[in-house]
Design a protein that fits this description.
The structure holds two protein chains of two kinds.
Chain A lengths: L1 H39 L6 H21 L10 H30 L3 H23 L12 E3 L1 H8 L7 E2 H23 L1 H11 L1 H6 L4 H27 L5 H16 L4 H19 L3 H7 L18 H15 L11
Antiparallel strand pairs in A: 1-2
Chain B lengths: L5 H21 L1 H28 L6 H16 L4 H31 L3 H32 L18 H20 L4 H21 L1 H4 L15 H4 L3 H10 L1 H5 L4 H44 L1 H11 L1 H6 L4 H27 L9 H15 L4 H29 L8 H8 L4 H16 L13
Helix pairs in contact in B: 1-2, 1-17, 2-12, 2-15, 2-16, 2-17, 3-6, 3-7, 3-15, 4-5, 6-15, 10-12, 16-17, 16-19, 17-19
The chains are: A mainly alpha, B mainly alpha.
Chain lengths: 337, 457
């Protein structure tokens, strides 16, 4: 029985908790991509850089608050800086829309052209980030790092295996729950949310019934800004901020959005968790788990790992490819908000 | 051969005067280094341009195809490591045969089992079982191979042939991968296809990074044989010394002292050998570029090219006319990828080393796409021009920004933190430049600098 509990703790500690927090970050990112896709109708390659930009502003203000000795005690100061980051990210989104994307929208350009344009925006934001903050890894989480340390847990329960709970993971999960609830409430219950859904469903019909497209687009960018900044900052808080990692993160995010059914916000969230869990589960070495679970002679000699951790990113694309082959519209039929 | 318009001649002459300018200001060696990379970039750009410009098939997998070309360079030119073959050759062979068997059986199941659900289930069982069996042989063999002298070997080595053959082999490697990708992904909508090809190229590179038995992975392969002479050998060759002496006769005759003259000659020979090597590379690359350019143009003007344009402009109409759109898309995707693969092999040939971790999407996919868009999609000369211009600005952005920052901040103290920070981030301004160029071109000249010619017949 103890062995069984131990094996469960191993799974919790190394797969389920990291999976949920990474999945939440991906889900928030994928939700942003899906919003752009559903309303503005293009694949936004700049999304990763927008996330990185939000995280960067958050870091800059975290430093500022730290230098002024303003803090939140046991909570990371970054939470205090997050609203500033969100506002800056929204402004960035609005500016890039006004100066770049709007023109192509009025021209009714094909989605591929807009995707190319977003690559241009990606380069520009990438350059701004590099120029302002450089390319070094930055650790900006402060406050209490662990809610529960592995040792404490061992003492508390008397089990062999520890369960560590990082505060950044708990914060990620809580903020994600709040944001997702708010977003879905907004889409389902408010008039603006309903008009956005109508716009996504049938643009011409929405225009005919008097929905102001510019307003819808503005709200969309605002939501995208919030989601991107929060996702980026949380990812940075959890795993240290690396300005260039976000470019690699774009692909799992796209994978999540497409796996869930692009344009479908619920699908994007589910897709995020699917991608996160499969990345972690397929590259985790299960040896410890089986050692606890199986009787002595059956214990595995190898690592019991399906793929080495080097292939973490490859896993998400393989899932993407498989989904596209078997069910091209994603798990939840895409293209409606 | 096609005739060039006046503005096209203008573009060509601008390109060459830029190199002469750099040669005069920064030295011929620098100019030739940039020229070599420009030619390779132009070939990559032509590869992408063929699939995107002719047929509207998007290919964001440039990085993966380049890496396949690079792999070909290693496999063709590196001398075989017999010991590795001895300890792991059979294992690898068995796993390869098993893999082929697995693929064939999956294909057979796809044909034989009619009901969708049964097909998925039986395929799943066969694949999982097959992979388990293959892993057994494969892991043993690779572990053995990687143990063979890991500091310098630890992989299977290659065939030991001249590296120049790899340019063709690289094309075939990339074409093979492109065929598989195309079979899987073509038929998706354009932006999905972009994401999928980008993702698959990432998978290709991560395989190359981590399969050490194949090409040493992140440990890199260095010291690949060159197709051109080495500087050090040239410096001791009689005809080369006499050539340099002949070229610089007047200069040398001005120096009266014998010792001084020898010293000057030595310096000239060292300089000349480096330039000679780069020139030989440049001429080899130029020949390849010209061949590809010639055939690409021929193809574009042929009935086949006309059909491609028809498919690009209206897929439905083309398929109503009885053209097999899916098949043609696959063909052009494979051809484009093959050309990119050739460029990848040339890139590794030029560097003399294979570093899988250097393949990053920003540098090897998105920059190439900027070249295509800026140059003018659907026009091969435009593609070459785009490759030249963008690579040129990519390299020359740093000196230019240093100059501009120095000009702007002249009023500031030389230790001003802002000025120092800006000077530190000089290398990053090239990304700003690239993004701005792309955005400006897309806005004000969406068909590129040298647009596709509209043919009326």
């Amino acid at each position: 029985m103890i062995d069984f509990l131990n094996s469960i703790i191993v799974l919790l500690n190394f797969i389920i908790i990291p999976g949920i927090s990474y999945g939440s970050q991906l889900a928030l990112g994928a939700l942003g991509v899906t919003f752009v896709y559903a309303i503005l109708r293009f694949a936004n390659f700049a999304h990763g850089e927008i996330m990185s930009f939000g995280a960067m502003i958050t870091i800059l203000f975290t430093w500022f608050f730290q230098s002024q000795n303003i803090g939140l005690g046991i909570l990371p100061t970054a939470l205090l800086a997050l609203p500033v980051g969100i506002i800056a990210t929204i402004i960035l989104c609005i500016i890039s829309d006004k100066f770049v994307f709007q023109y192509y929208r009025y021209q009714k350009s094909v989605p591929v052209v807009l995707a190319m344009v977003s690559i241009g925006v990606m380069f520009v934001i990438n350059a701004i980030i590099r120029i302002i903050i450089g390319t070094e890894t930055i650790k900006f989480s402060d406050g209490q790092k662990f809610i529960m340390k592995a040792k404490q847990f061992k003492v508390m329960t008397g089990l062999n295996e520890g369960l560590a709970l990082k505060s950044s993971q708990v914060i990620t999960i809580l903020i994600t729950i709040v944001l997702l609830t708010f977003t879905f409430w907004f889409l389902q219950k408010t008039k603006t949310g309903k008009s956005m859904r109508a716009f996504s469903d049938n643009e011409d019909l929405a225009l005919l019934s008097g929905i102001n497209p510019d307003r819808v687009v503005f709200i969309t960018w605002a939501i995208v800004g919030v989601l991107a900044c929060v996702a980026g900052s949380l990812y940075g808080l959890d795993k240290n901020y690396k300005p260039l990692i976000y470019l690699n993160l774009v692909l799992p995010i796209f994978a999540s959005a497409i796996v869930g059914g692009i344009g479908n916000p619920f699908g994007a969230v589910v897709g995020g968790y699917i991608i996160a869990f499969s990345e972690i589960m397929i590259t985790y070495a299960y040896k410890k788990f089986f050692v606890y679970l199986l009787p002595g002679p059956l214990e595995p000699s190898g690592l019991v790992q399906i793929l080495s951790t080097d292939y973490k990113f490859a896993v998400s694309f393989s899932i993407l490819v498989i989904v596209l082959l078997i069910r091209p519209s994603g798990l939840f039929r895409g293209r409606v908000l | 051969m096609m005739k060039f318009e006046r503005y096209e001649w203008l573009a060509i002459s601008i390109m060459f005067s830029l190199f002469i300018l750099v040669g005069l200001i920064q030295g011929w060696s620098v100019s030739l280094v940039i020229l070599n990379m420009c030619i390779i970039s132009a070939i990559m750009t032509m590869g992408v341009n063929i699939s995107w410009g002719y047929a509207g098939v998007i290919n964001f997998g440039v990085m993966g195809f380049l890496a396949m070309g690079g792999l070909a360079a290693v496999i063709v030119s590196y001398p075989p490591i017999t010991e590795s073959w001895k300890v792991g050759g059979t294992g690898i062979g068995i796993s390869f045969v098993l893999l082929v068997v697995l693929v064939i059986s999956v294909m057979y199941i796809n044909k034989a089992v009619k009901e969708k659900r049964n097909r998925y289930i039986s395929n799943g069982i066969v694949i999982v079982f097959g992979i388990l069996v293959i892993r057994f042989f494969y892991l043993n063999a690779t572990a053995n191979i990687e143990d063979v002298n890991p500091a310098i070997a630890g992989f299977l080595g290659g065939l030991g042939l001249p590296i120049i053959f790899s340019w063709i082999v690289g094309g075939f490697f990339a074409a093979g991968v492109a065929f598989i990708i195309g079979k899987v992904a073509l038929g998706l909508r354009s932006d999905y296809l972009a994401i999928v090809t980008l993702g698959i190229s990432e998978i290709v590179v991560s395989v190359l990074k981590h399969e050490e038995w194949l090409s040493r992975g992140v440990k890199n392969v260095i010291g690949l044989k060159r197709p051109v002479p080495y500087e050090i050998n040239l410096q001791n060759t009689d005809w080369f010394i006499s050539l340099i002496t002949y070229i610089n006769t007047s200069k040398l005759n001005n120096i009266i002292d014998v010792g001084d003259r020898d010293e000057a000659l030595n310096k000239l020979i060292i300089e000349g050998s480096s330039i000679f090597v780069k020139l030989s590379y440049a001429s080899l690359f130029f020949i390849v570029m010209f061949i590809i350019f010639y055939f690409a143009n021929k193809a574009q003007l042929s009935p086949w090219g006309r059909m491609m344009r028809a498919i690009r402009d209206n897929e439905i109409a083309a398929s109503a006319m009885g053209k097999d759109v899916v098949k043609q898309h696959l063909i052009i995707f494979v051809i484009g990828a093959a050309i990119v693969g050739v460029a990848g092999a040339m890139l590794v040939t030029l560097d003399g080393l294979f570093t899988p971790s250097a393949y990053r999407p920003l540098r090897f996919t998105f920059i190439i796409w900027i070249m295509v868009i800026v140059g003018g999609s659907g026009n091969n000369l435009g593609a070459i021009f785009g490759g030249f211009v963008i690579w040129f600005s990519w390299i020359e952005a740093a000196p230019l920004t240093t100059f501009i920052i120095n000009q702007i901040t002249t009023g500031l103290d030389s230790n001003n933190p802002l000025r120092l920070h800006l000077l530190d981030s000089v290398p990053y301004f090239r990304y700003l430049l690239m993004g701005s160029i792309l955005l400006l071109i897309l806005r004000y000249r969406p068909k590129g600098i040298i647009p596709e010619r509209v043919r009326h017949s």
